[in-house]
Design brief:
single chain, 535 residues, mainly alpha, Cytochrome p450, 4-stranded mixed beta sheet, 6 strands, 56% helix, elongated
């Protein structure tokens, strides 16, 4: 199998070949309709002709056309000729006259622009809860499961006109992410960040990523995490709120409660701010953070992220236009300036002597000031000149970008996971009772700490099963840097590699009875882990 073969239409995996053929074969029917309308054209008005053409020709040109952004230009040309014929029929324009003024007069977009318009409309509808029912019911979860069941665990797709592989085989995923990591080290990023987020760990590439990867993980060592216990204890106000609501027999919106909790923790760890959104939701930091997350998620939003990537590939400057109108959530200058200012003020306070606070921000400021090389640096060695990166500290831009990234990564994902866990326990009261009993027997009257919480095995199982059942990230991605030969697949350079986390988590080959919520499935893993620890 050659590099080119993997994206030929005969190759295994998802292909648009069938849809393209069916769509183009329908062109003859559309031409036939145009000819029939042409026979009666002298006897009907232009408006009547326009209605007939819309019903019999252009409606069929538009049906399902969002799938055809990546088709061969010859196919688009054939469809364009059909549209041109329909336009000439309505306006009685001669063959030798230029078609563009005619399309403008009819307010018709050319075929390739109609395809782009359809993608944008899907996105707009998803953002405003107007998505079609069939897409609402499918979602990205359903799409991945359908593709895997139909075509197998390695599926050929497209992201815009970029060829892509959707993978749900754990062995192949492990090979790409671990064994052959150097061949696909970078993520595929279609949005060009202009804010401080461009310095975040998930955006930077190659040696810059290696520097960030070598610098940040040591801040999460067990010793440093233990020192953060006092900061976490300050956020136990959530428990008082829950007790008050239950005493008053009020309905509790857990997503809101957990969201305020994770907001307070993230603000404290990443920005050095002591917010109290449980009792003071009008706090300035909380206000701006909520605005950052104010765009509405529907059940289709995860599916539409795919189309957002397509649109950014079609219109590379789209986010700049959104930013101009102050509606870009990722490059919004007002929001980013606030968080940048918050980090800058916190750094100034630390420089003036407040360096004893044990949080993520201080650990990032202290990072790489030591001269000891850690094992992560041995694992992630630099490809270029190591002296350019070794032992330099994080810049203020990098600290700011990763502080904001911690807000993105830790706020909604953690709140959602805690909410889903509460839901699963609520509908499985026997599991809830078992978890309560185990916590009571191990912790007793002690407050949770980094060490004693690790002893509650069943809590770990419940969280693990919740993450399997409702993964915060539906997909992960990489971009091949060189040609790769994995499991019989020759993957060319610059291919978008997408890993379906949800499909792996619901695969019966790896999880017996995968659609059943069962924390006990992790008991064998825990037993094996204890045996390893004892040896």
């Amino acid at each position: 199998m050659t590099s080119e073969d993997i994206f030929c239409e005969e190759e295994r995996g998802y292909s648009f070949e069938g849809e393209e053929r069916e769509y183009c074969e329908g062109g003859g029917e559309r031409i036939f309709s145009i000819r029939n309308i042409g026979r009666i054209r002298p006897f009907i008005t232009e408006d009547a002709c326009k209605t007939l053409v819309s019903s019999l020709v252009t409606s069929r040109l538009d049906y399902g056309n969002a799938l055809f952004y990546c088709v061969n230009s010859d196919i688009v040309s054939k469809l364009q000729r059909v549209q041109n014929s329909a336009a000439r029929l309505i306006t009685r324009t001669k063959e030798n006259e230029h078609i563009t003024p005619v399309l403008v007069k009819l307010h018709w977009l050319p075929v390739h622009y109609r395809v782009q318009y359809k993608l944008i409309m899907y996105t707009f509808k998803a953002l405003h809860g107007l998505e079609p029912v069939y897409l609402e019911e499918l979602g990205l979860y359903g799409l991945d499961m359908k593709l895997m069941k139909t075509y197998g665990k390695v599926v050929k797709t497209y992201l815009g006109d970029f060829p892509s592989l959707l993978i749900a085989d754990p062995d192949i995923i492990k090979t790409i992410l671990v064994k052959d990591f150097s061949k696909a080290p970078n993520r595929f990023v279609s949005i060009k960040f202009k804010s401080e987020l461009k310095h975040g760990l998930t955006v930077v590439e190659d040696d810059h990523w290696r520097f960030m990867r070598n610098t940040l993980p040591p801040t999460f060592s067990s010793g440093k995490m233990r020192k953060m216990n006092p900061l976490l204890r300050k956020k136990y106000e959530m428990l008082k709120v829950l007790k008050k609501e239950t005493d008053e027999v009020n309905t509790i919106e857990f997503k809101e409660v957990f969201g305020r909790y994770t907001m307070d923790v993230t603000a404290s760890f990443g920005f050095g701010m002591d917010t109290d959104s449980q009792t003071n939701p009008d706090n300035t930091f909380v206000k701006y953070a909520k605005e950052l997350f104010s765009f509405r998620f529907t059940s289709l939003m995860l599916f539409i992220i795919f189309y957002l990537n397509c649109i950014c590939l079609i219109f590379p400057n789209l986010d700049e236009i959104l930013n101009y109108f102050n509606i870009s959530p990722l490059n919004n200058r007002k929001l980013m300036d606030f968080f940048k200012s918050a980090v800058h003020q916190a750094i100034e306070m630390r420089d003036k002597g407040d360096k004893n606070r044990k949080d993520l921000l201080q650990l990032m400021l202290n990072a790489h000031k030591d001269t000891n090389k850690n094992e992560v640096e041995d694992e992630q060695s630099y490809e270029g000149d190591p002296e350019k990166w070794n032992k330099r500290g994080l810049t203020e831009y990098e600290v700011t970008g990763n502080a904001i990234l911690s807000l993105f990564a830790g706020f909604d994902t953690t709140a959602n996971t805690m909410t889903f866990m509460s839901h699963c326990l609520a509908i499985n009261p026997e599991m809830q009772e078992k978890l309560i009993n185990e916590i009571d027997s191990i912790l007793g009257n002690e407050l949770p700490t980094y060490d004693n919480i690790l002893k509650v095995d069943y809590l770990d199982w419940v969280f693990s099963e919740t993450l399997r059942f409702y993964p915060p990230a539906v997909r992960l991605n990489r971009k091949s840097k060189t040609e790769m030969d994995i499991a019989g697949y020759k993957i060319p350079k610059d291919i978008f590699l997408s890993f379906s986390i949800y499909a792996v988590h619901r695969d019966p080959d790896y999880w017996p009875d995968p659609d059943t919520y069962n924390p006990e499935r992790y008991s064998l893993l825990a037993a094996a882990r204890h045996e390893i620890d004892e040896t």
